[in-house]
Write a structure and sequence with these properties.
Length: about 120
């Protein structure tokens, strides 16, 4: 599978929701819903809510994508990724890249022209 990297550097192609959506696999959706419910203390998360092809795709996205200020900023600037932004890295990205080192690595590679 080709790596699918979104605006903030997260690698969607490594995400259970993305994989379940691409494979149209309800068992994977259920497993991901259960994992996130525990991980993020969500009382009820339905498998039917676990559908995403990445926030920078024209396909289906998770509900929180519409409210994501990183996504909104990149869309407004017409960028494929924050790695292409003249002000990368910025304060908006810090919460994501602080917790997901792979996101910083992906964006740094884009910034350096390696992707």
């Amino acid at each position: 599978m080709v790596k699918h990297i979104v605006y903030c550097g997260l690698i969607c192609s490594d995400c259970g929701a993305y994989i379940a959506t691409i494979k149209n696999d309800d068992k994977l959706r259920q497993a991901q819903a259960e994992k996130w419910a525990k991980q993020y203390n969500i009382p009820v998360m339905k498998a039917s809510d676990v559908n995403c092809t990445g926030c920078n795709s024209k396909g289906v996205r998770m509900g929180h994508c519409a409210a994501c200020e990183i996504r909104t900023c990149a869309v407004e600037k017409g960028l494929k990724s924050c790695g292409y932004c003249a002000t990368y890295p910025c304060a908006k990205l810090e919460a994501v890249i602080k917790h997901y080192p792979a996101a910083r690595e992906a964006l740094d590679a884009i910034k350096k022209g390696k992707k």
